């Protein structure tokens, strides 16, 4: 990575290149491609609370509200022409049907006036009920491919989610674990955006073989900026 | 009063029943509940069971065709091992008298087929734990199972009642009384500060304030306690007591069997290592603490009972009343932190009442010398400082409400009446109760979107029922109130891992034997090749796989000792008071070792010693910084909270604080601003700085994102049944699908800050990790009594806490600054910034 070329577009963003296309990793958990005027967000897992509640785990029903509120803020900030929701937008197949009316309205407001792609994910393989936008398996734009599940091996230009990457470092005997963007410059794996989404360390075997040098650079998400951390500094667990 | 077989049994052995045994029997035969307070070795167990045994002995035989009888007597102990121990000890007289009594244990280790059989054909006496009682209550045939119950015997009651386990047990007791209104409770306890609290705890709460009968057996021979008067220099700070090892070893050599108590598992590991380093005679010295593999612990316990060991290094796992052979010396390394705790530990020596126990206290540093002295004097005076009982926790109540519903449908009015019969919940208001029921039903959220997913539902007859059998299943998996920090198995590996930090993929580790369990957060800070001490061995860290921490035999190098959360008891209020009194009164220094008395004399010359009720605050410059050291003596937890709040305030007042460190005795804060000059100019005055109002907004604001509160919330959420316990064997790669308690906390706090579970969390934190209650008492005590001493340099009294700086992590917040440092490393390495 060419450090000198790194620039901060917005406060707290870290601009990298994915297969030669500039991408701004935003600390709020989204990536903006300025040349494409395209915003990507992954693993919203809307209605995860109610999905658990169906099975007797009554976790707070406020996750959708919290997630959409944060999403609205970034959408408002970037005003992108295109938005790609990179799969697992809803926590289960009936999530969109359960979506309470006020949330449906705020989602529609975000969608108005721009193209919106729902990439299908393993939690939500079908198009969401009663919502506009185009549902696709994957989307190819300017040498990039957007899909939910990262493919095995080195997939140049792939932007994916699904794994909910996080990274951990130990500094001064203290362990810090944060969600992160994971990239080796060829491909990018997005952090999960949803309020109740957990995360999986980028050194886990689920990522095996995906990055050129074993471990990717982790763009760890802090309280108001993104911190690029070299793969060699990362710890498992 | 005693039936014939008992009289004969005593007579044949040339014994006679002890007075308290007969007194207890009389109380019980009059239909009363009763509390027996007695030191170890007083025949407490037999006394507690005499009412049951005599009643069962004269009970007519069951006639053919008569229905099977339920459990007659329930025995509850905090430890599984204790239940097993009792079965053995009680089995002997029952066999010898040939009594027609069946007796069985039921614990987490009891196989399923035996449990099923116990349900169908219950023993007369069932020996079990609070968790198992909760499970029995939650089963549909509970009323039938318990309808013949006459007695419940509660062992080690003093240790049960102070925790959430005690809350759960009190609710279980109330439920049993709903089945059997005449149920009599027999509590067995060590000496406590307020016996009446326990007497009330044992009975149904009533407006008349009736209590259980009390029978007290006074202590036996006075223990011989000494403080090690070392030839060596007592260190200023630290907890290892390394200086005293040769003298401790010498004491072990001169006695038959020595029990060595320490306060934390890390101290246990260290002491064990140090003793073996000097063990030229190869004395059999063993190690016992709660993280060791169970098999290993059982081996040590057996060796102890067989009298083949000369010494055992132990933590509080050996506090409770299991019988351990002939211990003739107790050594307490480090300060005991409480007078009652010391008395109970000394009671482990010489398990016979009429002979004096021998004990040596080994203070690890100078403040501990004062504390040991205070504890020793308290023990001679018979002073007690067991912790006060606290109100019943709401998360425990939530668990119980669901348990009740799993057992049988309930009417809210009746259950409320029942719950308030339990001592910890006597003051529970109806609104909180209803909110807890609402929480159990639908999560209790203001946004009422979960009605259709309700776990319990009120049907037309006004009864709440479990909506689905799966709910009962979930309940059974999550019952209990003991939440352990996530632990990893420590396992020997045969092949050495060739693992770089970044390549977990290359892990080629093959498993060997398991040594025990270790906290995940400690392991997470290790790199491959790091050495650490565990199970009395030096181990080399080889890697983590799932829930296993792989190790090989370690060698030389810098060896780390895992520090464990929760192992540290705070200094009791009583001892703190005594230590302050001792500092203030030079006449009492004569009892102290010369080097310690000297230390205090020099402090008096260079600074000042505070009067007993005063708070001394010293300020002095050092290096580029300005320090403030306060001496509240309120325990580390309260000091930590105080440190957090003071730094917030100082920040706001422009003093630019940089950090703080807390010990049991004092608190040091350092800043870039000249603290002394600020206080002198009354900008702010110390009175303002230490004003009680810091417990208002500042506390709220700090709590908002405190990791301490998150940890407390996690425990509450698990106990209340909001999230599931993490079971060993669950893979960490499951992380991305589970919902973490931290995320729930964040969302709940911003959307519904008044939620009942957040209320429970705050109540918990106030008495638990934050010790706000004690801090509040201190702030009110010192109002108008702050003594400020401006110094040019550090005072003798300040040295111990100043030595802690840099040793203790300031706190557990995960700072962005650490990320920034790591990110900067890249820039540095790449030659640009």
TrEMBL record, chain A:
It holds the Pfam family Metallophos. It comes from the Bacteria. Gene3D superfamilies: 3.60.21.10. Residues 38-153 form the Calcineurin-like phosphoesterase domain. This is Calcineurin-like phosphoesterase domain-containing protein. It comes from Aminobacter ciceronei. The lineage of its organism: Bacteria, Pseudomonadati, Pseudomonadota, Alphaproteobacteria, Hyphomicrobiales.
């Amino acid at each position: 990575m060419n450090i000198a070329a790194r620039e901060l577009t917005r406060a707290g963003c870290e601009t990298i290149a994915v297969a030669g296309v500039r991408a701004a990793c935003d600390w709020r958990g989204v990536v903006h491609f300025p040349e494409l005027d395209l915003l990507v967000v992954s693993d919203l897992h809307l209605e995860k609370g109610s999905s658990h509640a169906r099975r007797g785990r009554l976790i707070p029903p406020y996750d959708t509200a919290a997630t959409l509120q944060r999403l609205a803020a970034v959408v408002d900030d970037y005003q992108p022409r295109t938005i790609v929701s990179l799969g697992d937008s809803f926590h289960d197949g009936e999530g969109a049907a359960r979506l309470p009316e006020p949330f449906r309205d705020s989602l529609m407001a975000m969608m108005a006036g721009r193209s919106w792609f729902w990439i299908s994910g393993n939690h939500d393989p079908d198009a969401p009920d009663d919502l506009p936008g185009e549902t696709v398996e994957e989307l190819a734009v300017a040498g990039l491919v957007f899909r939910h599940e990262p493919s095995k091996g080195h997939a140049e230009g792939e932007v994916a989610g699904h794994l909910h990457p996080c990274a951990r470092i130990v500094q001064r005997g203290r362990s810090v674990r944060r969600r992160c963007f994971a990239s080796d410059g060829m491909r990018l794996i997005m952090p999960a955006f949803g309020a109740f989404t957990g995360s999986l360390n980028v050194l886990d075997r689920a990522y095996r073989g995906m990055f050129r040098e074993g471990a990717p650079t982790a763009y760890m998400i802090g309280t108001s900026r993104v911190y690029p951390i070299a793969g060699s500094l990362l710890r498992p667990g | 009063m005693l039936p014939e077989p008992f009289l004969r049994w005593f007579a044949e052995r040339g014994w006679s029943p002890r007075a308290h045994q007969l007194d207890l029997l009389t109380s019980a035969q009059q239909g009363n509940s009763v509390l027996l307070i007695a030191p170890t070795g007083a025949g407490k167990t037999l006394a507690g069971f005499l009412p049951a045994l005599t009643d069962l002995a004269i009970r007519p035989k069951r006639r053919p065709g008569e229905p099977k009888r339920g459990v007659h007597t329930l025995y509850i102990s905090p430890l599984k091992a204790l239940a097993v121990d009792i079965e053995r000890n009680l089995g002997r007289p029952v066999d010898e008298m040939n009594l027609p009594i069946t007796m069985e244990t039921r614990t987490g280790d009891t196989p399923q087929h035996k449990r099923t059989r116990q349900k169908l054909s219950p023993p007369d006496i069932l020996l079990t734990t609070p968790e198992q009682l909760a499970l029995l209550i939650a089963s549909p045939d509970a009323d039938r199972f318990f309808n013949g119950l006459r007695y419940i015997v509660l062992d080690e009651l003093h240790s049960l009642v102070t925790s959430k386990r005690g809350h759960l047990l009190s609710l279980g007791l109330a439920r049993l009384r709903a089945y059997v209104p005449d149920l009599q409770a027999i509590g067995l306890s060590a000496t406590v500060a307020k016996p009446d609290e326990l007497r009330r705890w044992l009975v149904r709460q009533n407006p008349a304030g009736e209590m259980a009968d009390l029978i007290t057996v006074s202590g036996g021979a006075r223990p011989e306690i000494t403080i090690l008067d070392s030839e060596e220099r007592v260190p200023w700070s630290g907890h290892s007591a390394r200086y005293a090892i040769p003298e401790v070893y010498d004491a072990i050599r001169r006695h038959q069997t020595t029990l060595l108590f320490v306060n934390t598992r890390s101290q246990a590991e260290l002491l064990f290592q140090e003793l073996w380093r000097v063990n030229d005679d190869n004395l059999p010295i063993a190690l016992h603490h709660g993280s060791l593999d169970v098999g290993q612990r059982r081996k040590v316990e057996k060796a102890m009972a067989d009298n083949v060991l000369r010494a055992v290094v132990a933590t509080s796992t050996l506090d409770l009343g299991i019988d351990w052979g002939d211990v003739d010396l107790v050594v307490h390394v480090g300060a005991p932190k409480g007078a009652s705790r010391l008395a109970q530990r000394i009671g482990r020596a010489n398990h016979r009442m009429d002979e004096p126990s021998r004990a040596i206290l080994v203070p690890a540093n100078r403040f501990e010398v004062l504390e040991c002295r205070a504890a020793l004097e308290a023990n001679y005076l018979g002073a007690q400082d067991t912790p006060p009982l606290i109100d019943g926790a709401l998360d425990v109540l939530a668990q119980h409400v669901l348990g009740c519903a799993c057992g049988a449908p309930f009417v809210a009015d009746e259950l409320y009446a029942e719950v308030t019969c339990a001592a910890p919940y006597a003051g529970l208001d109806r609104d909180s109760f209803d909110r807890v029921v609402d929480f159990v039903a639908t999560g209790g959220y203001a946004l009422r979107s979960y009605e259709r997913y309700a776990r319990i539902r009120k049907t037309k007859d006004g009864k709440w029922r479990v909506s689905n059998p799966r709910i009962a299943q979930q309940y059974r998996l999550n019952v209990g109130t003991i939440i352990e920090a996530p632990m990893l198995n420590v396992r020997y590996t045969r092949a050495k891992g060739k693992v770089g930090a970044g390549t977990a993929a290359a892990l080629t580790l093959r498993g060997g034997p398991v040594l025990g369990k270790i906290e995940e957060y400690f392991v997470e800070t290790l790199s491959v090749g790091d050495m650490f001490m565990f199970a009395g061995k030096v181990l080399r860290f080889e890697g983590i796989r799932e829930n296993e921490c792989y190790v090989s035999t370690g060698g030389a190098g810098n060896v780390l000792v895992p520090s464990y959360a929760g192992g540290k008891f705070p200094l009791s209020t009583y001892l703190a008071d005594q230590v302050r009194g001792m500092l203030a009164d030079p006449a009492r220094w004569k009892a102290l070792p010369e080097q310690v008395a000297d230390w205090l004399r020099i402090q008096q010359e260079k600074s000042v010693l505070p009067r007993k009720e005063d708070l001394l605050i010293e300020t002095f410059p050092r290096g580029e910084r300005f320090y403030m050291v306060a001496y509240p003596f309120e325990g580390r937890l309260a000091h930590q909270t105080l440190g957090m709040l003071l730094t917030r305030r100082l920040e706001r007042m422009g003093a630019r604080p940089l950090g703080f460190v807390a010990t049991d005795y004092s608190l040091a804060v350092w800043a870039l601003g000249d603290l002394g000059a600020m206080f002198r100019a009354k900008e702010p005055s110390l009175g303002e700085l230490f004003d009680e109002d810091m417990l208002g907004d500042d506390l709220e604001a700090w709590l908002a994102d405190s990791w301490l509160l998150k940890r407390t919330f996690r425990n509450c959420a698990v106990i209340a049944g909001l999230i599931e316990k993490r079971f060993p064997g669950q893979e960490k790669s499951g992380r991305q699908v589970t919902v973490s308690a931290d995320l729930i906390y964040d969302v709940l706090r911003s959307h519904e800050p008044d939620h009942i579970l957040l209320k429970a969390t705050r109540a918990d934190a106030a008495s638990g990790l934050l010790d706000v209650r004690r801090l509040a008492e201190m702030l009110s005590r010192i109002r108008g009594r702050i003594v400020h001493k401006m110094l040019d340099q550090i005072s003798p009294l300040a040295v111990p806490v100043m030595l802690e700086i840099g040793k203790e992590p300031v706190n557990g917040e995960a700072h962005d600054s650490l990320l920034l440092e790591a990110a900067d490393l890249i820039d540095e390495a790449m030659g640009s910034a």
